[in-house]
Amino acid sequence: MSETADAGSRPVVGILGAGRAGTAIARTLLAAGIDVDICSTRPPKALQHHLKIYAPGANPVRPEMIAERTRVSGPGVVVLAVPHEDLDEVDPETTAGTVLIDATNTWHDELLPGWLQAAIDEQLPTSQAIAGHFRRSTVVKALNHISHHELQDAAQPDLPTAQRRALALAADDDQARARAMGLLVRMGFDPVSIGSLAVSGLMNPDGPLFNRPLRREDILRHLA
Ligand SMILES: NC(=O)c1ccc[n+]([C@@H]2O[C@H](COP(=O)([O-])OP(=O)(O)OC[C@H]3O[C@@H](n4cnc5c(N)ncnc54)[C@H](OP(=O)(O)O)[C@@H]3O)[C@@H](O)[C@H]2O)c1
Fold first, then answer.
1. Which domains does the chain have, with CATH numbers?
2. C-alpha angle with apex 70: 65 to 74, nearest 5 degrees?
3. Residue 43 Cα, ligand 1 centroid: separation in angstroms?
4. Fewest CB atoms less than 10 Å from the CB: which of 17, 37, 72, 188?
């Protein structure tokens, strides 16, 4: 499929990063009938072979095109799945006007961009720093607290929502939150809003919601 392929009637989600997380999210979206544009540091032609193995059906694009087709019907959704240590190489303008789902985490050995390290030093959640850096996008924290190993199998769109695995999300903007929740429902999860980005640390690697098979009530138990 070419970079400028017609979106047709299927929604399109962009994914920045085509590694373990990005391709697992792509597979889950594609299985739910959502088209995926995805990019990495590699040019689309070089990425094509990788995607044939790890996310068949995903459409490789250049980073500057990542939001293009998502905007066809209103503000699109782009998922950020680039390691924190590489974030200074991502141009925030590429996602301007989108709902940006921050699926990222900090790992101990990463050399972080100064703006992100400064936020961590101030004990702010990384998603707030990312919202400040990608200031022309509306950031929702989601999809960071489930492993790429589990994501696709955990998605169960055929089950009633209340019987599915629950995934938390946090956002400062209600419209963006609603858009991300709709996407998680369509993917096959039971989305549970935990509040604003200020409380998104609950979803981070040192938080109680990280990497656990949760039901709605498990998440709600952690809210004040
Ligand atoms: N692994 C998991 O289970 C998991 C689950 C949830 C969240 N996360 C989080 O998701 C993020 C990515 O983790 P990962 O495990 O997927 O890492 P990974 O396997 O190392 O993949 C990273 C991807 O980011 C791409 N990338 C790097 N710089 C980029 C740039 N400037 N523009 C576009 N793409 C760029 C890389 O491109 P190349 O392919 O060209 O090198 C690669 O495709 C991390 O913050 C991680 O904590 C991971």
1. 12-158 (3.40.50.720)
2. 130
3. 16
4. 72
Cβ(195)–Cβ(170) under 8 Å? yes
204 CB within 6 A, ligand 1: no
From its phi and psi, is residue 213 left (phi > 0), alpha (psi between -120 and 50) or beta? beta
Q: Are 82 and 18 in contact (CB under 8 A)?
A: no
Expressed in angstroms and rounded, the spacing between residue 82 Cα and the centre of ligand 1 is: 4
**Cα(211)–Cα(147) distance, integer angstroms:** 6
Distance separating alpha carbons of residues 71 and 148, to the nearest angstrom: 27
CA 173–ligand 1 middle distance (angstroms): 25
87 DSSP assignment: G
Protein residue closest via CA to atom 42 of ligand 1:
19
Mutate to test the pocket of ligand 1, among 36, 37, 40 (most ligand atoms within 8 A of CB): 40
For the full predicted model, state whether its pTM sits above 0.70.
Answer: yes
In this predicted model, what pLDDT tens digit does every residue of 86-112 receive, in sequence order? Answer: 999 999 999 999 999 999 999 878 899
Read off the tokens for 174. Answer: 């209600």
Distance CA 161, CA 216 (A): 10
